[in-house]
Queue: 2 jobs
Job 1
Amino acid sequence: MSAPATLDSRGHLTAAGLATLAAAPMGRAPAELAAHVASCALCQERVLAGSVEPAGVRRERRQPPPAWRLWVTLAAILLALISMLTLMQRIR
Ligand SMILES: [Zn+2]
């Protein structure tokens, strides 16, 4: 491999490895790195701490809440409102 070493001699992620992971799009990280982070609590903490992450990358990785959740919430509110109004009409 010609890429910079992403794992150190103990098999943990190096700074380059963390940077590679941080720069990779969600779910497209190198399998070798993703597999190690999945099984290593120490490296999980380092990735979550994001100390190596450049400032711009973090925003890219955060995904906005899905639009369907908003519509489901609105629909639920509307349904509750309608059932409340019909209930009030029946009481009269
Ligand atoms: Zn590790």
Job 2
Amino acid sequence: MPQLDGALCNANARSNYWLSYIEAEIEYAKSLCMECPAILECAVYMMEQYDDDAVPVGVLAGTSEFDRLELLWKEVDDGEGTNWSEFDRLISEGV
Ligand code: SF4
């Protein structure tokens, strides 16, 4: 979790929920993010990790790892000739 001024995750008794893989706990974390005064800085922190070729972990700026993976998948799926589209083809062909 980012160490940002006013971050609700760090001050919360259930801060482990931000790193959980249990849906109800993830949804709890995401809902608190929406009230967090540091959400914009958190989004910047998250994007900087992508810029550094790192994979952001846990709930960040109101998004879960699955949410971000789904967004990335849709973004890549719009393109043609990507590695991911080739991967899709192999899966659909049962290779
Ligand atoms: S937006 Fe969410 S993850 Fe980011 S600092 Fe706030 S509570 Fe933590």
